[in-house]
Write a structure and sequence with these properties.
Layout lengths: L1 H22 L5 H21 L12 H32 L3 H23 L10 H21 L5 H23 L5 H22 L2
Helix pairs in contact: 1-2, 1-4, 1-6, 1-7, 2-6, 3-4, 3-5, 3-6, 4-5, 4-7
Length: about 210
């Protein structure tokens, strides 16, 4: 799970930077960023608080909580990938077909690494076959949706809101996962490896 945290920390800095960059020319984007961030943190917090062990005096459904965390990660990555899809669609709409192909291949490689972050919380618990399929769809389909939208319309306001919501959801999950850490050394090692893996896959996108 610490490896997942490293990946998520990298994504958090990525989506936060994108949200801030888009909010500058968007006028009301400066207000949308804090709104999206609060929504991104607040929604998963409200959902998970109803299933948290401290709120369940009769039993502790650890597997259910970790499965929920994986779904929240999937949703956060989905919001992040929505922004990537917008970039693909915008490149296609501008007639930059070589750039479009490059973005598709690059993001596919990048998203494969992000899948490891989804698998982290559920790697050692029993799950149904439909769960990883649903998580993959939740994380990946927004790329397709974003591509369609990006090919027809470009909105800095929408980009700011989606990226800031992704940042909020990622922030929630990072805090949730790190609060369960038992070994500081292993946690630091896993986080460092996760960040480095994401860095090198990101580096490949710029080659």
């Amino acid at each position: 799970m610490s490896f997942s945290v490293g990946i998520l920390l990298f994504l958090l800095t990525d989506v936060t930077g994108e949200a801030v960059k888009l909010s500058k020319p968007a006028g009301y984007g400066a207000l949308l960023f804090p709104v999206g961030l609060v929504v991104g943190v607040g929604v998963p917090f409200a959902i998970s608080s109803k299933r948290h062990p401290l709120n369940n005096k009769t039993s502790v459904d650890t597997s259910g909580i970790r499965s929920l965390t994986a779904y929240i990660i999937s949703a956060a990555i989905g919001l992040h990938n929505l922004g990537e899809g917008l970039a693909i669609g915008a490149a296609y709409a501008g007639g930059q077909f070589a750039l479009t192909t490059f973005l598709v291949v690059g993001f596919a490689l990048h998203n494969g690494t992000e899948g490891m972050a989804i698998a982290g919380p559920i790697s050692d618990i029993p799950i149904r076959m439909r769960d990883p399929l649903a998580m993959g769809f939740l994380a990946g389909f927004p790329t397709v949706l974003g591509s369609i939208v990006g090919a027809t319309v470009v909105s800095e306001l929408a980009g700011t809101f989606f990226f800031s919501m992704a940042a909020g959801a990622l922030l929630y999950v990072i805090v949730e996962l790190t609060s369960k850490a038992k070994s500081p050394k292993n946690t630091f090692a896993g986080i460092t490896i996760g960040i480095l893996v994401m860095y090198f896959t990101e580096l490949l996108l710029s080659i």
